[in-house]
Amino acid sequence: MNSTSFWATLAAAWIASAVGTLLSWLLTAGTSDAFSVALRRLTDRPAAVADPEIDGMVFVQLDGVPYPVMQWALQSGTMPTLRRWVRSGSHRLQEWTVQLPSTTPASQQGILHGTCDRIPAFRWYDRELGRLLVANRPADAAVIEQRASTGRGLLADDGISVSNLFSGDAPRSSMVMSKIQLARGSRETRRAFGRFVLRPEGFARSFSRTLAEVARERFQARRQRLRDVVPRVERSWTFAGLRAISNGLLRDINTAVVANEMMRGTKSIYVDYVDYDEVAHHAGGARLESLAPLEALDRVLAMLEQVAGKAPRRYHLVVLSDHGQSIGATFAERYGTDLGGVCAALINESVVEIDKNVESLGRAQALVGDLAGAGKGSQRTVRNVSGRLGRQAEAESAAAATGTGTMVLGSGNLGLVYLMEPERLLMEDIQERYPALLPGLVSHPGVGFVAVLSRTAGPVVLGAGGTHRLADHQVDGADPLEPFGNDAAPLIAAVTAMKEAPDIYVNSACDPSTLEVVAFEDLVGSHGGLGGWQNRGMLVAPVDLLPADVRIVGAVQLHGHLVRMLEQLGQRRHLVQDEAPPVPPGAQMRSPGGLGD
C-alpha cells in the first residue's frame, strides 16, 4: 500500500466519521428529550418573589382543537400527560359552546378582555374607519384591542400574553399582534430566541425540525393527491414553510418564553399554540396528520409541568381551545363559482371578493416582528418577511377603498356581504333595491341560511323554506336554524345586532350526516360560522377551581370563569371588582353539548 492511498483512505475515514458525527448530533439535538434537558439547564435558578403564597396560573390555548378531537386524543392515549391529569382526578375535560363568529379574534378578545363586541368575523369592512380591519395585522389588532380594553383584562395582574392576537391588558407581551413594535421588537422574545435557538443544540433542533416539517408536509400533501382524498385543497410550498415555522420554531420559542416567565414567578401566563389549527386548515381536522401535532403539544405540557416543579410559586395549568374545526369542500370547488360570483349574478353588478387566507402569514409576521431589533438589518428582514402580507393588505384595501359596489368577504364558512352604502342596509332596503338577492341566496344549495337586520322585526334569519324572527322566536314555515342547534338563535341575534355587522351574513349549509360545511375560503378545515365541530370548544381545568357541571356559552362566560379561578388563587385583589359576565339570552334552552347534536 503506497503512502498516497494510505493518506487518501485515512482522509476518507475522517470525513465519513465527521459527517456521521454531525448527522448524529443533528438528530439527537433535535429531539424533545434534548430540548427538555436544555430547558431544565437554563431554568435552574428560580427568581425570588415577594408573594410566594399566591399561586400562579398558566393558560395553554391549543388553537382550534374541537371537544370531540380532544376526547379521541385522551381515549387513544396519544396525549399521556393530559390523560394522566384527567384520570388522576386533578383536572376535568368539558365542552364549551363557541360564540358566533367562531374565530380566534372574537374568542381571544372574549377570553382575554371579557367582550366579543365589535368583531363580526376574522376580517371585516369597518364603516367607522372606512376600510378593512384584519385581526392579524399589527395596526388593526391594536385598534381592535383599544376598543375592547378596560384595563382589567384576564392578565392585568402581573401577567404576560404570549403569541396571541391581544394582550389581555398584560403588563408585558411576547409575539402579541396588537403590541408588535417593529422598531424594537420584544425583549422577552429575543431573550428566548438567543438562549434556546442560537445555542448549538437549539440551532440543531430548529434546523433539523424545520427540514423535517417541510418534508413531512410535502409527503402528506402528495399522499392525499395519490389517494384522491376528498375534500382537499392545494397545499403549496409556501404553506409548508409556514407550517415549519408554527410547528417548529414558534412552538419552541413559546415554550421557552413560558418556562422563563414561570421561573420569574409571573402570576398569570396565556400562550397560544397554533400547531393543530395550522395543519387542520389544509389537511382536515379529523385526519391523522392533523392529530399528530397534539402528541407534540402533550410533550410541551409535560415540559411545563416539570418547570412548574422548580418555579418560585405553585402553578396550576389550564388547557383550552378558542374554537373547533369543521371539514368540507370549498364553495367554489363544489359549485363551480364563489360566493361573490353568486351575488354578482343576482344583482347584475360587479362584486369584489376577498377570500384569501392570511392567518399563517400573520403568525410568521408576529414572530419576525418581535425578533427585530432597531438595526437596519433587522428592519430589512422584517420588511422582506412582511412583504407578502403587506401586498395582500394593499390589494384588499384598494379593493375596498372605492366605497362603491358590493364586497364579499370569506371567514371560514361564514360569508359577509357589504353592499357598500354609507349606512348599513336593512332587510327592507335590500328587498327594495336588490329584489333577487335574498331569495337567490337562500335558495342556493350551498347556503344554510342568511341573517339580516329588519327595520321592524330586528334580527331575522332566512332559509329556503322559512324564516325565524329572533326577537320573538316566531318561525314561519321550516325553521332554517333547526339543523344548527338551539344555541344558534341567541348567537346569531348577538352578532347580527353589532353595528359592525355586514348587510348580509351568509352561513353555509351543513350536511347532517357528515357534519361537513362549505368554506368560502380556500380551506378544507374551516371555522367562522355555525355547523359541524367549529362551535365545540374544549376546556381542561383543575377540578378544585371550576365548579362541576358548569355550562359555558361563549367566550365572555369563559372569561368570567377564568377570572374567578385567578381570584381563588389570591390574584386580582388590587383590581376593581369584576362583574359576572351576562348569560346570553336563551342559553338555558338545551342540555350540554355541541351545536348540531
TrEMBL record:
A Pfam family recorded for this sequence: Phosphodiest
SUPFAM superfamilies given in the database record: Alkaline phosphatase-like (SSF53649)
Region (Disordered): 575-597
InterPro entries from the UniProt entry: Alkaline_phosphatase_core_sf, Phosphodiest/P_Trfase
Protein name: Alkaline phosphatase family protein
